[in-house]
Amino acid sequence: MADHAARKRAALAALVAEQPAFHHDGEREQVWSARPETLAYLAEATRPNDRTVETGSGASTVVFAAAGALHTAISPMAGEHRTIEAWCAAHDIPTGRLTFVEGYAEEVLPAFDPPAALDVVFIDGKHSFPYPIVDWHYLSTLLRVGGVVVLDDVRAPAVEVLCRMMLADPAWELLAAPDREAAAFRRLAPAPPGDPWQEQRLAPPEAFARHFGAGEPPPAPPRRRPLRRVRGALRRIVR
Known about the structure:
Layout: H1 2-18, E1 23-24, E2 29-30, H2 36-45, E3 51-55, H3 59-66, E4 70-75, H4 78-90, E5 98-102, H5 105-108, E6 118-123, H6 131-140, E7 143-152, H7 157-168, E8 172-176, E9 182-187, H8 205-212, H9 228-235
Parallel strand pairs: 3-4, 3-6, 4-5, 6-7
Antiparallel strand pairs: 1-2, 7-9, 8-9
């Protein structure tokens, strides 16, 4: 456990200091990583041998690998997968428990069948409607009661709607709002049978704004982020 905690701290510090460009927009390399507090939250929430899945890949994939999770990253960009593996190798982060599935999540997830319930899910693939909701639909049904789902970029319209639904659903508990750009929820109860649509509600915009702000467009991740922003989050990682 101590080795994993030290590896998580080292990985987080290196990710924030180096800002590796895992992504590519077709013309140049880009840094589209989750923000420092979100990465630190994922590290804190993930224990060795947890079964974890994310839609998308990047710095978060490194964090799951450093945490010793049995992790699956679903994204269509094979080149990014190789870049992540190379960065992990250069920083002594084992990737033997890391599986990349090359494909779009909406095509992969209908047939995705893990051998056991999931402990942590990170939804950070496509952000336009309806893709975050499709990702959540499939992965939330595979999440154990007590497991955690983290939504990134919550002020993207499709993600905001999903977040407001979860805020109003008694089967989910909001645990944290890291960077005010992500939302971490714990599953408190299994999904109800049938189609109880008449019971569903959306939390009002004011409730969403209390946690994440309002009236602002979803910000693009900056190219560089100062290390001081993550120091407090790093201290929360179990020593």
